[in-house]
Amino acid sequence: MAEHTSSSITIEAAPADVMGVIADFARYPDWTGEVKEAEVLGTDDQGRAEQVRLVMDAGAIKDDQVLGYTWTGDHEVSWTLVKSQMLRSLDGSYILKPAGAGATEVTYQLTVDVKIPMLGMIKRKAEKVIIDRALAGLKKRVESGA
């Protein structure tokens, strides 16, 4: 099994507010550097996205991918790759935990396997950059209240 990369950040907002931003895929191009387009292809009976098409541009890697989402309660969402041009697999999750007065600890886990050969060390470094950028963008978006 592939190793995953993870990182955490504390956001000064309630878990429901953080999850609200995570679940608002249409706004991803506003706060994530790599997502250029996001389109919800299907939703569950609670109106949460089950499949999302993302057009990514991460410099050397440009991709048009579809991810399948699984929501566990109000504090966790995970995803897995359904279709991609550049990736063999992609599994990730956001896990939210209350962290004191009105704050939330957000842990982002990611495992990526690209179709092109890449050294494990380089792949994990790329995963770490993606995670850190996503968490910083999420924190800025949630805390700005935009």
UniProtKB/TrEMBL annotation:
Report the PANTHER family cross-referenced here.
COENZYME Q-BINDING PROTEIN COQ10 START DOMAIN-CONTAINING PROTEIN, CONSERVED PROTEIN TB16.3
Protein name per its UniProtKB record: SRPBCC family protein
Question: What's one Pfam family the UniProt record gives for this protein?
Answer: Polyketide_cyc2
